[in-house]
């Protein structure tokens, strides 16, 4: 290991793999290492044996679940927003040639004890049980206002200033009920809590426009998902990196992050080998996350996320037998501060055996009994064949890395999409490279119905 690299990347989570792919394309000499013998780190997709080994080391998978190789179960459930930032990165780097995508059949929202589909067009909106007749008219005016908005044309503003007026002001202007606000803010703008209401309206406007344009792109829902699970994404970026000269080493223990007398990064030690590099980037687990002495990472305020991987033998009741869906339970509906998400996929996505459905429930932990907090979601699933529950700390770096050339990514949050992951990629990129990440606009080809 005598040669020197521009960047050593630690961990093969999606964030790290996107960065190593992009840095390689940029002409950087990249070495990518992971202590695991599989790709994906925290965001891996596991087969049955790996799943049981992780959650129940003393138990072998029951034979009635079918073949090991039919499974690719995501540890972190997320869908890709069709017009979102991750899609832009996928097409910009052309890693789409290594991947196939399928549409997610529907997006649902929980209200007054039952779930309803988030309308995907005017017809569905008119029939939707989410709103009464008069409220539908008000909501229609609200959406027409958003779609008609042009920054340069004050006639489209109806007296509203998106950069000054809060979202609360906008809702009040159109007279929208609390339940409608919940559904717009949480099922469309995809906010995790209600903090956005008292902030300027522009980010919410942009999120709703992103949602509706993603919806318009493929029709049934705004989400797409890679066949064979999310673990395919890091591998696709790893291939990209390799094409541009990046080197990969799996199953490589990382024993020390080596720094000089001034605390600046100089290399990474594995066993008795040390590799030299100018910069290092990696996930929090390589920089003392879980140990208290490192000082490089800290637990964020809303510090834990609970995820329950549930194996079902049937589609989720009330979803029109959808083979895949997202269900959002807005926090107001269940007396919480944070929303609860359910992401469900099935054998049509090549992630489990036929007649098995994988539903993953996730939320930010608010009490000392996290499993009790997700009961409202578990009760919507019908009989659960088996479930695997994890509670993880959410870490964030304590410094920007510019002074010591150590750049640390954030843990994966409870959101059900990848927009926050891409924000982290853009943030780390800017800190490492010194300029914004600029992407070309293209379309993803051939998404399956």
As for the number of domains, it is 3
Text of the CATH class of the largest domain: Alpha Beta
Counting helices, strands and paired strands, the structural category is alpha/beta
Shape: globular
Task: Please give the radius of gyration in angstroms.
Answer: 22 Å
> Can you count the helices?
12
Instruction: State the share of residues found in helices, binned by percent.
Output: 25-40%
Q: Tell me how many strands there are.
A: 19
Strand content: 15-25%
Low-confidence stretches: none
Q: Major sheet: size, sense and barrel closure?
A: 7 strands, mixed
Average pLDDT: 91
CATH superfamily of the largest domain: FAD/NAD(P)-binding domain
Distance between the amino and carboxyl termini = 48 Å
Q: What is the CATH architecture descriptor of the largest domain?
A: 3-Layer(bba) Sandwich
Question: Could you name the CATH topology of the largest domain?
Answer: FAD/NAD(P)-binding domain
Features:
single chain, 449 residues, alpha/beta, FAD/NAD(P)-binding domain, Guanine Nucleotide Dissociation Inhibitor, domain 1, Guanine Nucleotide Dissociation Inhibitor, domain 2, 3 domains, seven-stranded mixed beta sheet, 27% helix, 24% strand
Note down, in words, how this protein is organized:
By secondary structure, the protein is α/β, with parallel strands linked by helices. It has three domains: 187 residues, FAD/NAD(P)-binding domain (3-Layer(bba) Sandwich), CATH 3.50.50.60; 100 residues, Guanine Nucleotide Dissociation Inhibitor, domain 1; 94 residues, Guanine Nucleotide Dissociation Inhibitor, domain 2 (2-Layer Sandwich), CATH 3.30.519. Helix content is 27%, strand content 24%. The protein is built from twelve helices and 19 strands. Strands 1, 2, 10, 11, 12, 13 and 19 form a seven-stranded mixed β-sheet that branches. It has a seven-stranded mixed β-sheet with strand order 8-7-15-16-17-14-18. The longest helix is centred in the middle third of the chain and has 17 residues. The chain is globular. It comes from Gloeophyllum trabeum (strain ATCC 11539 / FP-39264 / Madison 617) (Brown rot fungus). It holds the Pfam family GDI. InterPro entries: FAD/NAD-bd_sf, GDP_dissociation_inhibitor, RabGDI. Belongs to the Rab GDI family. Keywords: GTPase activation.
């Amino acid at each position: 290991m005598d040669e020197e690299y521009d960047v050593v990347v630690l961990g093969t989570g999606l964030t790290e793999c996107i960065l190593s792919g992009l840095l390689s394309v940029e002409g950087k000499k990249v070495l990518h290492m992971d202590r695991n013998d599989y790709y994906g780190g925290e965001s891996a997709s596991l087969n049955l044996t790996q799943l049981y080994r992780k959650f129940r080391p003393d138990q072998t998978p029951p034979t009635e679940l079918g073949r090991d190789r039919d499974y690719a179960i995501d540890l972190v459930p997320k869908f890709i927003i069709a017009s979102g930032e991750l899609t832009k990165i996928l097409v910009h780097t052309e890693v789409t040639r290594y991947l196939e995508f399928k549409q997610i059949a529907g997006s649902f929202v929980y209200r007054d004890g039952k779930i309803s589909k988030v309308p995907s067009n005017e017809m569905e909106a008119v029939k939707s049980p989410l709103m009464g007749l008069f409220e539908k008219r008000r909501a229609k005016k609200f959406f027409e206002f958003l779609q008609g908005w042009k920054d340069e044309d004050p006639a489209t503003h109806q007296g509203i200033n998106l950069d000054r007026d809060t979202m609360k002001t906008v809702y009040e202007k159109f007279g929208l009920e609390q339940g409608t606000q919940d559904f717009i803010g949480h099922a469309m703008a995809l906010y995790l809590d209600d903090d956005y209401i008292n902030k300027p309206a522009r980010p919410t406007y942009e999120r709703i426009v992103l949602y509706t344009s993603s919806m318009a792109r493929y029709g049934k829902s705004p989400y797409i998902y890679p066949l064979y699970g999310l673990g395919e994404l890091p591998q696709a970026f790893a291939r990209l990196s390799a094409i541009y000269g990046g080197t990969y080493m799996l199953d490589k223990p990382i024993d020390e992050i080596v720094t000089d007398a001034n605390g600046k990064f100089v290399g990474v030690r594995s066993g008795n080998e040390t590799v030299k590099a100018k910069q290092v980037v990696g996930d929090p687990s390589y920089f003392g996350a879980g140990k208290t002495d490192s000082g490089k990472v800290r637990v964020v305020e809303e510090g834990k996320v609970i995820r329950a991987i549930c194996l079902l033998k049937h589609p989720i009741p009330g979803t029109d037998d959808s083979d895949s869906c997202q269900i959002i339970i807005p926090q107001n509906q269940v007396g919480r501060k944070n929303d609860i998400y359910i992401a469900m996929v099935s054998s049509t996505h090549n992630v489990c055996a036929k007649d098995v459905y994988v539903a993953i429930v996730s939320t930010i932990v608010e009490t000392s009994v996290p499993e009790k907090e997700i009961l409202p979601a578990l009760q919507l699933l019908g009989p659960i064949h088996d479930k695997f529950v994890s509670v993880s700390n959410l870490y964030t770096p304590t410094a920007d890395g510019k002074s010591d050339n150590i750049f640390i990514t954030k843990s994966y949050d409870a959101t059900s999409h990848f927009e926050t992951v891409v924000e982290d990629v853009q943030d780390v990129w800017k800190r490492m490279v010194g300029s914004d990440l600029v992407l070309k606009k293209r379309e993803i080809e051939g998404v399956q119905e």
